[in-house]
Amino acid sequence: MPRAEVVEAARSGNRDALDAVVAAYLPLVYNVLRRAAEPDLDVDDIVQETMIRVIGGLSGVRDGERLRSWMITIALRQLADARRRAGRERMLREPQVPDRRDDAVDVEEAVTTRQLVETEQREMTRAAAWLDDGHREVLALWWLEVRGELSRAQIADVLDESAAHVAVRVQRMREQVNVARAVVRALAAVPGCPDLGEALAGWDGKPSPLWRKRIARHLRACPGCAPFAPGARGLEQVLAGLPLLVPPPDLAAGVVARWHAGMAAGGLGQASGTSGTAGHGSIGHGPAGHGGGAAHAGGAAHAGGAAHAGGAAHAGGAAHAGGAAGAGKGALLGTLGGKIAGGVLAAVLVTGGVAAVVAARPHHQPSLHPVLGAPAATTLASTAPSGTPSPSTSAAARPPASPSSASPSANPTQAALGTGTFRDTVPAFPATASVADVGAIRQNARVDGRDNGQSTPYQGRSVWIFDDTTLQDPWGFLSNTAAITADRDASDGIDLRSGNGFTVRNGQTPVELIPRTDAERAFEKANSGAGCTGQYCGAVFGFWPGAVIADEARHRVLVTYGKLCRGGTDGTPCSGPLGKGLGTGIAALDMTTHKVTRLTPANGPSVSSVEGRDRTMFAADGQGAYSSAALVVGGDAYLYGDCTYLGCKLARVPLGDIADKAAWRYYHHGAWERSDGHADRLIDAGAAGQTVFYDPAIRAYVNVYMPYGSNTVRYQVGGSPFGPWSAGRDLITTKAGASANYALFGHAEFAERDGLVQYLSYFRPDSGDQRLIRWEMRTK
To answer: Do 116 and 241 form a contact (C-beta atoms < 8 A)?
Structure first.
């Protein structure tokens, strides 16, 4: 929750603060309403009405734990009002031409289909249209609970029911959802059931509870329709894979139109609203719009307690700026109407940069830097924040110093590459002059194939770290390997024929990089051989490297990794293609002694592994692996991780203290917090990781990645490692094979022309090749 001073700054018109409030709450409101509303309702309009009331009433919310339930309560009240209005309109509506395709559901599918990779998830999207109104709302709330966005207590608060009653409602909803999924399958079947076609006589083609019941009766009685029952995957698994919906860009445009209409009518800035009486309150002094609509500001509104301030214009519709339910809130709006609506919100949504990201990425939380701890009058500079925070900013919330004021321990290589200045706006996208796959990276003769392939510069060289590596002549298998090259001219390709990450000599046989502990070696020995009888027989450990960064001041390269066990008889804990995850750690390559050490974190968690407690783990499996991407700016390491379809969180730690978990901080709403429980998901996630780097040619940080299940390379640009970040943009679609390509990484140490030419790599499973992409940009 943004701090009280940020909320007040937003209400008084502070552009950056309002930007943060809108960014923090719009995604949740949009997702609840999009999932809960019927297909024929104008969800965008309901979202706008809700957000207006949320902004107006935030200052009255003192209990942060109730904030989300309070917002959702407002949203569902607005939805109920919209349903009542729509019910009256439906009675007067002409009969619809039968059409089995639900156009309104198409809107949602257009938003989500790019990310949905399973048939059951697409069916779930359509099935929601067939639910009763109450079950649709419960589904929307329960979906957010499954995703970890809401707690059961918060849902109970929204519904004003006990947790036990909520559990009953969830169970009833689940039963209806499964029926609706069967209906969706039956209607989509080709060829369909001929008897069902007869039963559909008279149907208008629109999903409804009545027709769900009729179709369900047929499905229960028809032996031929038995295969249409939902699949074996649990409903939680299906819902967990559904991504948060992205608020469409025209949602912001609609808000802008309403506020401009109010300005044109003159009601927003001049509404008196001092009486605080019930009903609509005082009439605003501004003239009515072309259609005669009056501007209102006053006490509690008659239809649920929300006060309005604004003027109606014939072309733009009614302009509203509202507060929470309750008499007297309208008086507050009378003084805030002009401040909030006087072009401030419109400017944020149209030109604020960060807000444009909000419209495109629901999970992005913009960076506010010092304004979160500063008085409302504080404004942000258009360049990097200084190394000195405002007096009221705590050490934990303090933004990092600009790279220009880097500590003496900053990496020479990093300084040579350039780390830029932090900016509080989204940089412009560069124009692409050309982009092409230029062939396979040359590998060691013993390497048959290996994936991953993140790299870092170190003293004029490039160090590469790989995951699973298969060898040939003779065959062999290693869970991780490394290579190093001194040739950083990639115009004729990249040569990685060395056998390790220390010496540039071709012809060496690759060796496994990350060592086992004594306990791990003993475990593998005990669970090998013909006489083994335990559940871990045949299991071995693997270590999959992730992000890699150079720490030249300490003569080392740091490699994040995931630990797993795999192998053994089918059905045992470590069996299966991916084995069993056991946690994440960090290994240090001493570039002087050529020794690899797994760091033992101070103040770290107690992580249990199959061989016993593992003190080298920085996090247990599934508890926040910050190994997707990393970069060094000044003396700080920035590590992205805990990635989902929603994006990746960001951690920051002084490079010299990376082994002390107490020194780690996590980015949340402009502050750096000790826990990552509420950390923002800032950037898009890539399959097997991604790369974030600074490009001096375009003066922007760049995130390059290949989404899960996709062959398309995408990128984002940001003003700093913590944002604001743009929405993703397609760069190039790679050649498809039987399996999707993955492990797309950038290698900024090979850049040409000060960064106008960048080289990327990705793994193609069909051939086992690491492929190289050359990307040439031109500044606009």
So the answer is: yes
Query: Which amino acid is present at 370?
Result: P
Asked if residues 758 and 692 have their Cβ atoms less than 8 Å apart, the reply is no
User: In terms of Cα–Cα distance, which of 351, 384, 394 is closest to 634?
Assistant: 384
Contact 391, 378 (CB under 8 A): no
pTM for the model: 0.53
SS3 letters across 9-52 = HHHCCCHHHHHHHHHHHHHHHHHHHHHHCCCCCCHHHHHHHHHH
Is 666 in contact with 682 (CB distance < 8 Å)?
A: no
Amino acid letter, residue 397:
A
Omega into 545 within 30° of 0, i.e. cis?
no
Q: DSSP 3-state assignment of 712?
A: strand
DSSP 734: P
What are the pLDDT digits (tens) for 479-516? 999 999 999 999 999 999 999 999 988 778 999 999 99
**How many whole angstroms separate alpha carbon 308 and alpha carbon 551?**
57
- pLDDT (tens digit, 9 = 90+) per residue, 90-123? 444 443 433 444 444 444 444 444 344 445 666 7
Query: What residue type is 350 in one-letter code?
Result: V
Q: How many residues are recorded in the chain? A: 780
DSSP string, 490-526: TBTB-EE-BSSSS---BTPPP---SPPPHHHHHHHHH
Classify residue 509 by its DSSP letter: P
CA gap 469, 499 in Å, rounded: 12
Question: Is-contact 759 750, C-beta < 8 A?
Answer: yes
Residue 525 near residue 431, CB atoms below 8 Å: no
Q: How far apart are CA 751 and CA 754, in angstroms?
A: 7
| Cα end-to-end span (Å), the chain | 38
Q: How far is CA 438 from the centre of its chain?
A: 31
Rounded Cα distance between 538 and 532, Å, is 8
Which 8-state DSSP code applies to residue 752? B
The 3-state DSSP class for residue 267 equals: helix
Half-sphere exposure of 393 (CA within 13 A, CB side): 25
Query: Which of these, 50, 53, 58, lies nearest to 7 by C-alpha position?
Result: 58
For residues 9-35, give the mean pLDDT.
71
* Rg of the chain over all Cα atoms, to the nearest angstrom: 28
Tell me the per-residue pLDDT of 334-389, one tens digit each, with 9 for 90 and over. Answer: 222 222 222 222 222 222 222 222 222 233 333 322 222 222 222 222 233 333 23
The strand pairing partners of 399, in sequence order, are none
User: How far apart are the C-alpha atoms of 110 and 121, rounded to whole Å?
Assistant: 13
- Give whichever of 288-292, 402-406, 518-522 has the largest mean pLDDT: 518-522
3-state secondary structure labels for all residues of 279-308: CCCEECCCCCCCCCCCCEECCCCCCCCCCC
